[in-house]
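The aim of this short unit is practical: by the end, you should be able to scan a pair of folded records and say something sensible about each. We start with the first protein, listed as its amino acid sequence and then its structure tokens.
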Amino acid sequence: MTRDDVRLIRTRLAVLAAVLVTLWSYAAYVSSQDAVDLLRVRTLADTLGQPIDRLILSLQTERRITAETIAGAGQPTPALVGAREGTDRAAAEIREFTRGRDLRLLSAGTVRDRAGELVRRLDGLGTTRSRIDTGRLDQGAAVDGYDEVIDIAFGVYGPEWGAYESGLAADTRAVIALARARELLAREDTAVSAGLATARLSADEQRRLTALVSIQRYAHTAAVAGLPPDGRAEHQRLAAGPEFAALLALEDRLLLRGGAANALAGLTVQEWRAAADAALGALQTVVTNTARSSVERATPGAAMLIARTGAVVGLGLIVVLVLLLSWAGTVRRLTDELARSGTDLPTPLPGTPAPLPAPPTPEVDTERGLFLGLTRRNQVLLRDQLSLLDGMQRRERSTEETGELFQLDHLTTRVRRNVEKLITLAGATPARRWRRPVPLLDVARGAVAEVPDYHRVLIAPHWPWSLAGPAVTDVIHLLAELIENALAFSGAETTVRVSGEQRPQGCAVIVVDDGPGLDAAALAEANHLLGSPPPDGPPAGRAGWYAAAVLADRCGAHVSLRPSRRGGTAAVVLLPSPLITVTGTGGIPANAPPDSPYPPAHTGADLTDPVGNGALPTRVRHSGPNGPEHVRTSLDTVELPVARTARRQQ
């Protein structure tokens, strides 16, 4: 998978995340909007609806008594004073609402503004009363003033009281329509009561009364048609009873006498009062009971609505977060995989921490970047090839085939090393890295496994040190370069010895060969190259030393050459204290000569040390199909494949 593929996947996941969040936001808004609407309606009913109902009833009573008082040309009666006090108490509740700031009514829209307009008109009611008491306002103007205030009170009810389109909204509209029909009946009551106070109606008053009766009956019928079943049933029961029968009979008499000189002849105040009060009271009972039953029916639906809102907003949010986190983890895994792609991740030792992902590759020019990309792809292929070879070796029982697989495995390991060397010389970093310290003995054995003629290398048996994980890869390649150089400049019948030595500054790994050695000038030139590698690349014929110098500089080690006591050359790799951890007492004397030979590795079929000489476990070619399967105990091609003929030469 390329970086462009990961970027494309990341972009698509980001788009999906945006779409998912948008859909959840819309669903949460729709669901929560219904819940907010329901909460607003319930709050309006409790804090404003009931006070307005009481205010309208008080205004209707005060209007009727005021009309009767003006018609009788009398002074304010105790009944009028009591009606005015009832109106003032209801108005105080409305004023209290407009001064409050209930957070549940944030979506109430202009309800508060309409309630404020009602309060302003109620504040002017005192002036109207004063003019009535002083006789400066006639009956028609006074009644019209009360009618306007009541209309404004009904105007407070608006679309905000209906919530979302539901049964409760339809019931609310029907109840308000029935209350308005009751107001028309109250206006009719006012007109008749004022006429009875003077025992006559003018022609204009008779026409107005006739229109009121007709409009009231039509509005009443339309409102009842919209009531819920229980409300219609209750109204039909009342309409068939004496409450409405007496009123209908009196209205019919008034309509029949509409053209007579005195339409109120034969109608007494007590007779009208009994019929009107009974009908008004019955209508108010229907309004109250219908509103209450509508709320009770809506309660289960409201609970379901709240539950649905909680599920959409709460559980939906949890699902969205889980998906987003999962997608983020997928993107991180793809990014990590991309960081590791093109690099060979060796199989660690049992108990050895897993390798770290490859560090970011430094930015290079386009051509070098192309070569690095191809090289890293080759590393992936080599890793897969080594894994395949390992499985084949474990299954193979033929001696001849096993030997060939050993050779192919070792050749692949060497090719892998050359690929990583190319990456190093290009200024990039191979990906074989570890988090925790690795035994230095395993580091040395891993280096030997990457060189030709590995059977000529002897490794000291006891290494009481561990190497810091981040430096393992570079030190493996550094030692492999020095060991390969020692093998190349010494005879085929000789050995190369690798040992460790404690130093005050840390630990020294010493690679000694038995070759002809270097003269003083060549030795000085080589040490200069190892200490100060040229920035423009290796000099001719010195690629191995240059690579060793680059690797040493990267991991903080120091490499130097000196003559050995047996005539060859000793390469000393000083690993500083920050890279080294002492893990045991070991078996190497601190003053042991660096070029002294150590016991050769054991060549038996098992991986133990039967003679107790401390020899390293090695991977060997078994003589037949009954031999045990080999295991891995070092960093990569772990047990060293040692030929029996080579051992006999040693």
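Turning to the second protein, read its sequence before its tokens, just as you did above.
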Amino acid sequence: MPTGKLQVIPLGGLGEFGMNSMALRYEDDIIVIDAGMMFPDSELLGVDIVTPDFSYLKDHREKVRALILTHGHEDHIGGVPYLISQVNIPVYGTPFTLAMAERRLEEHHLLKQTDLREVEAGGKFEIGPFKIHFIRVTHSIPSTVALAITTPLGVVLHTADFKIDQTPIDDEHFDLHAFAEYGKRGVLLLMSDSTNVERTGYSESERAVRPRLEQIFATATKRLIFSTFSSSIHRLQQIMDVAKKYDRKVAFLGRSMLATTELSHELGLLHIPDNILLRPQDIMDTPAHRLCCVVSGTQGEPMSSLSRVAVDNHKSLSVKQGDTVVLSSRIIPGNEKPIGRLMNHFARRGAEIIYGGGSPPIHVSGHGYREELKLILNLVRPKYFMPVHGEYLQLIRHAQLASHLVGQGLESTFIVEDGESLMIDERGARKGEKINAGRICIDSGSLGDVVEDMIIRDRRHLSEDGFVIIVIGIDQGTGQMQGPPELISRGFVSLEESSELLPFAKQVVIKTIEASNAEERKDWGVMKEKIRNDLKRFLNRETKRRPMIVPVVLEV
């Protein structure tokens, strides 16, 4: 065995769901697998998105050779602009994945200076001492690949996110033969998706959704409103195919939905039947029984298209009595309350709501269940195993599942979290040194607006730019405002400035409330978000500062 040292360094995605990023280092050469992001939890006040801390790569930038993307989900590509702004390296991926990343880079004016290199599934290329093979796998987004990385010490196999769909919509099958072939030759280390390790059996094929779609289209007498993840291209394909069969026009609503469907169609991944698309402005003029709308906002985000439709505040679509609303997606943990509010709004408008489980299903997971994870382990039979993509519970369950199929059992499985590392050399594998890793909080989504943990802690009391609290009394029954709002400012402007500024700020809040309809005023989540956005724009325009804005709605 060569005398070199191989280090596996997770920068994000191990011990948490989201912001997946992994560095692989052999001597003086480093490659990076994915650069994802995640949305903040309620503790991260004033933060828009969270990315891995890329300071390790920045500190060793002369050794970093490339970024390799496995697929186009935000938790794998959302951090690409933030990495490229610090370490400008070539980016490899399939054409669709790179097209998804291009949009993020263009938003941050980095596209022209980024070296994007397309590799088709099945393709092979070399970067320094690494020989990389893109292996086609199936997932809930097209063009997902696993990575077989041949190093001087042996093969490292990274599954990426996957499920083993034996009847994929696009007939692009999971390349089990490639996994088996590497297993025969010998795999030094397997890193495998742990998301659904606690689910027994096999995941259902994407085609399992088709019978439920048929049922819904066959029985619906008025408008059909579907919401699904905009990246679920295969789901969108099935919705359009069934809509064509039942003679319904299809309209897409939402910025992400429009952008992704257009991109997928351009690349030949989404096939749109002739004469089926409808412009948003023609929706309400189309007979209800001939209409199907596909709307973004599955998680009840307050200002998403679906949330605005739910409170009858969307310029193109209004839900009426007897319409059918279908949530063809999973509820991400933590989003139960906003999604519950969303469904309540639709129920008040007289719509039938279809969501959750059932047989046949309206949604299937894009991650493999236990039997699929065991199948990969049996095919590969690696010398060492390291579970990835999951919180600590999922990682340890996956390690236990793999223990009798890997090398020396549990001694050959390694649970590694962000900032830890796994080192492999001629003496074997073991936990390595810790590196500087963590999370970077981004405010307003721009590259320069990084919010450090210390500032976030301060924001809970005062924050860097101070805070403004808006106290509003609203009648629970009517949704009417009871008296003028009260504004309290600390650490933002001086007493003299506040006496001039805050009266105008109050008028902004009053106008926002008065411009909202009665149903919006009954929804705290929607009202708080609208007030926060309008007041944030006003204060930023007047002071060039961004105080933390905390609307407080009191039932009277």
